Amino acid sequence: MSIFKRIGSIMRSNKELPAAPSRNPYEDSQVGDIVNVDLEQYVITGKVIYFDRGFAPHRFAYYLQNGRNISCLLVEKGRSYECFLCDFLEGSLSDPHDVPNRLDIDGDSEFQLDHQRTDLTRVEGNTDFRSGDDLMFWRYYGISRPDEYFFLQWQDSKFVAMRGEQTSAAQVKFMSSR
């Protein structure tokens, strides 16, 4: 083997491999991963991805389980990530057109409608929704407590209500199970 062939093969072997695409834990976490929110650990049991046709996802709902408790971590994508740790509430409404602009919950908390929109969903694991269907979403903020939020979702004659607080994205740590 000539010296030039050896130098050429050494140069080719020292080429850097292309870097693996970076993983965004707020968007790319999957069922089975672990998430730590405000120093409490949960297992992700379901994931709902919200998007508009032809656009990238803008909201992610992670169904979290800690023992027997099931909570929801809602992550909204904007210039930064807004995170909300929510508990599910029982209640009933029959028609999505009857959703009010102002809510009074148990006489101690009032909420004002912040915004409402319709999205498509893609789901993984155990959730309350189906993939590929339209979902109506309402977001309310607390009138007396601005860090408290109420979320209402409707898909195919089923309402899901959640009440929670905004938590700093820095307090949310995702750990992959792979």
Please describe what this structure looks like.
This protein starts with a helix and ends with a strand. The chain is built from 2 helices and 11 strands; from the N terminus they run H-H-E-E-E-E-E-E-E-E-E-E-E. An 8-stranded antiparallel β-barrel has the order 2-3-4-5-10-9-8-7. 8% of the residues lie in helices and 53% in strands. The chain is elongated and about 85 Å long. The protein is mainly β.
What is this structure, in a nutshell?
With 178 residues, the protein is mainly beta. The chain is 8% helix and 53% strand.
Q: What is the structural class?
A: mainly beta
Q: Which stretches are poorly predicted, pLDDT < 50 over at least 5 residues?
A: none
**What is the oligomeric state here?**
single chain
**Largest sheet, described in full?**
8 strands, antiparallel, barrel
The fraction of residues in strands falls at over 45%
User: Any idea what the shape is?
Assistant: elongated
Order of helices and strands: HHEEEEEEEEEEE
Q: What is the β-strand count? A: 11
Q: Give average pLDDT, whole number.
A: 88
Individual helix count: 2
Strand order of the largest sheet: 2-3-4-5-10-9-8-7
The Cα radius of gyration reads 22 Å
Whole-Å distance between the termini?
44 Å
Helix content: under 10%
